[in-house]
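Most newcomers find our protein records easier to grasp once they have seen one. Sequence and backbone structure share a record, each on its own labelled line. To make this concrete, we reproduce a full record directly below:
***
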Amino acid sequence: MARRILIIQGHPDSQAKHFGHALADAYQAGAEEAGHEVKRLAIAELDVPVLRRREDWEGGIASEPIRRSQEAIGWAEHLVLLYPLWLGAMPALLKAFLEQVLRPGFAFGREQAGKVGRPLLTGKSARIIVTMGMPALVYRWYFGAHSLKSLERNVLGFCGVRPIRASLIGMVEAMGDAKRTRWMDEVRALGRAAR
């Protein structure tokens, strides 16, 4: 069954092509081969202001690029987030983007003040693809993949996105061509399966 997929490229560098960009291309190619409808969103191309006050997050007016991003997220049945691991977490621009788009009233609602939010993004699934310089096993087992777990549970899961799957790709700078090709093939297969 064909699905609507939104690929969110979370690399903050708009001037260069990184392995994460090639992975996004591979995912899209696989998805389109299987008949899925795909849209893409590049965080680096958006003007994403940093939220500084709770009032701005809860009641501020979202900018036009943020509103268009919310429309794309609302349209999608499956979200794909790709980003490099920087200082053990997602880049600040991606975090700022998520804070802007996943606002009360769009991503979750409140029944009463002080109550836990009601998820509004139910019926969507997600794939998170994280590239990093360290071995993925070190990030997962030694560091506990804390930032990934937070994104899964405290951000996407809180908004109702389920299931959430992750692919961790380590040692990117030292990776040879054969291994890059294997990862590209694996991500292309994920795109075909919309997983």
In short: The first strand starts at residue 4 and ends at 9. The chain has a mean pLDDT of 95. Strands lie at 4-9, 37-42, 78-84, 108-109, 118-119, 125-131, 164-169. The chain has seven helices and seven strands.
